[in-house]
Amino acid sequence: MELIRKQLWLVLLLIGLSGFAFVWLVIPREPEIENVWHLLAKLVSYLFIIGSISFFPNKLKYGHLMVYVPFLVFLGYLIPRVSFFGVTGNVIVTNFESVGEWYTLLYLLVVQMINFTVSFAYRMGGGTPGKTMKISLLATVTLFSGFLDLAFYTINPVEIPEEGLIYAHHIIVLTGTPLSYNETIVFALCHLPLFLFVMWMPLDRWFKRISERVQNREQQKSVPTIAS
C-alpha cells in the first residue's frame, strides 16, 4: 500500500497521458461534439491528469524547477502554434489593422498571465519568495532569449523569409538588425549563462539578510536612549 501511495501520481499520469494521446490522435479536432463519449474521453483524461498533479511529490530538492517545465511547453509549442494560426489566418492576412490587438492579447497578456498564475499558485502552495521569483525570472529569460521565435519556424510548416532573416522585434531592439535563423540560435544560447545565474542565485538568503538588517534597525530605534 505504501508503494501504491507513493506512486499513485505516476499511475494517474500514465492513464491521463494515454487518454490525452487518444483524444489528440483519434477524436476529430472540431468545436462540435458529435458523440457524448468524445466529451467523456476528454473529461476523464483531464481528471486523471488533475489527480496526478494533486498527488505529485512536492518535497523534491529542486522541485521548484519542475514548475518551470510547463513554460517550455507553452513557449516551445502552444504559443508558436497559436501565433502560426494568427499569422496565416484572418488576423494578419486579411485584417492587418488588428495585428496590434492580437499581439497585445497573446504576448503581453496571455503569456504573462501564465507566468503570474503559475508563480502565484506556487507561492500560495508554500513556495519561498526567492524560489517563486526564480520561476518567473527563468520564464522571462526564456521568453526573451529567442526560444519562442526559433520554435515558430521549427514546429510550424512555414519557411524563413526569403532574405533569411527572423524579424523578432525584441531582438532587433537590442541588435539593431534582424538576425538569421543560425544567428538567432547563437543569440538564444548566449542567454544560458544568464539562465544559470538566475537559477543559482541565493535569493532567499539575500532576502533573509535584508529582512534581518531591517529588523535590527527597527529594534535599535525602539531601544530608549539613556540621558547622560
Provide key terms for this protein.
70% helix, flat, 2 domains, 228 residues, 10 helices, mainly alpha
Please characterize this protein's 3D structure.
With 228 residues, the chain is mainly α. The protein folds into 2 domains: 1-57; 62-202, no CATH class. Helices cover 70% and strands 2% of the residues. The protein has 10 helices and 2 strands; from the N terminus they run ααααααβαβααα. Strands 1-2 form a two-stranded antiparallel sheet. Helix 4 runs antiparallel to helix 5 (129-144) and helix 5 (129-144) runs antiparallel to helix 9. The longest helix is centred in the middle third of the chain and has 26 residues, at 99-124. The protein is flat, with a radius of gyration of 23 Å. The mean pLDDT is 83.
